[in-house]
Amino acid sequence: MTVAVSESPAAALLSAAAVRERCANVTASVTRGDSRWLRIDRDRLDACAARVAAVTRKRYPGLVIPYHSRWRHFEAGRLDRRKALPDSPHAHVDLTVISVLLDAGAGAAWHYVEPQTGLRLTRSEGLGVATFRAFERGDFSEGRDPFRVDARALCAMDAAKLGAIFQVREDNPLVGLDTRAALLRRLGDVLAGRRPSVLFDRLRGPEVTASAILHELLALLGPIWPARHELAGVPLGDTWRHPRAGGESATKGYVPFHKLSQWLAYSLFEPFEWAGIAVTGRDELTALPEYRNGGLLIDTGVVRLQDDVDTRVAWDVASELVVEWRALTVTLIDELAPRVRAALGVPGLPLACILEGGTWAAGRELAQELRGGAPPLSVDSDGTVF
């Protein structure tokens, strides 16, 4: 008999509140000096906040800061591509889901040239615009309406079709092409004839909480992630082990992050708001524990590497060092956020806007200045984490 998620011990790990709690436990252990990998210098938080505030003012001089969202990548080149879409929440949600799932590291050698504008785009912006244009063409649709994602089209997606979407050639390789195609096929299987925008139908109402969006995403997407850990038959997704994570009974020692699911939840705020549905509890979600936010903390000296951390090797994503780094990222950006708000003079600024303004952009900028864009630690991951 299949155990419902709500009846499984896994339920205790499938929330943003669990992410904060377990990350705080790990951070407390590092603060005590229990880590062989990292240490924290909270005296550097103010300088880090000043850097984030400066980058935010440069990017958004009027301090009208949007959410950290996949929709920012669709605006690459300062173009409003959304006007090419129908005014349909189902189309917006379908596009958001498919595009975030395809947003893994592209590799330094890949680029995309947008046929409509001639723009040459790389990284997340290139992946986002390529997916947008494929959606606009109907590459994920089975019917006459191109502006939709159908399960059958996803199930038929292979590396050759996806390679054509991303303009992959021998001289333009994309990292993880087969993995991306397999992820879409698994999503098609899970949808079982439905569209990703079934999420919108389930959550439609005068308002929706950010936690409710994440809950639905974790329930829908849990089966499509690579097998890592599970409890009572329930996959835990982006959840890892750390000896000082705390917890009780079956969940002891687990640290959940749910980075890609939270990134998708943030990216769905706008489609719900465009449909007239208020998104409440936005700060229930956490900072995204990935290498731009985490790199910001290392590059500004808030997080310091111990002497035995080898920065020349690629660390396994499940290693104690990487799990610890990600946990510190969640907790310390929570500590950084009020300092950034104070530096900007915007006391009510949502965390999603601080990330956009913001921590992610400052992390990328510092990485470019110091290492040509590479993060301070290299992580060997399948793309569903970083």
The first-to-last residue Cα distance is 34 Å
What is the succession of H and E elements?
HEHHHEEHHHHHEHEEEEHEHEEHHE
- Overall body shape: globular
Low-confidence stretches: none
The helix/strand class is mainly alpha
Largest sheet: 2 strands, antiparallel
Could you name the key traits of this structure?
14 helices, 8% strand, 386 residues, two-stranded antiparallel ribbon, mainly alpha
Chart the SSEs and their pairings.
Blueprint lengths: L15 H16 L6 E3 L4 H15 L10 H4 L15 H13 L10 E2 L6 E2 L1 H15 L13 H5 L3 H7 L11 H15 L6 H6 L3 E3 H12 L8 E2 L2 E2 L3 E3 L12 E3 L2 H16 L3 E3 L10 H9 L3 E3 L8 E3 L3 H25 L6 H21 L6 E3 L6
Helix pairs in contact: 1-13, 2-13, 2-14, 4-5, 4-11, 10-11, 12-13, 12-14
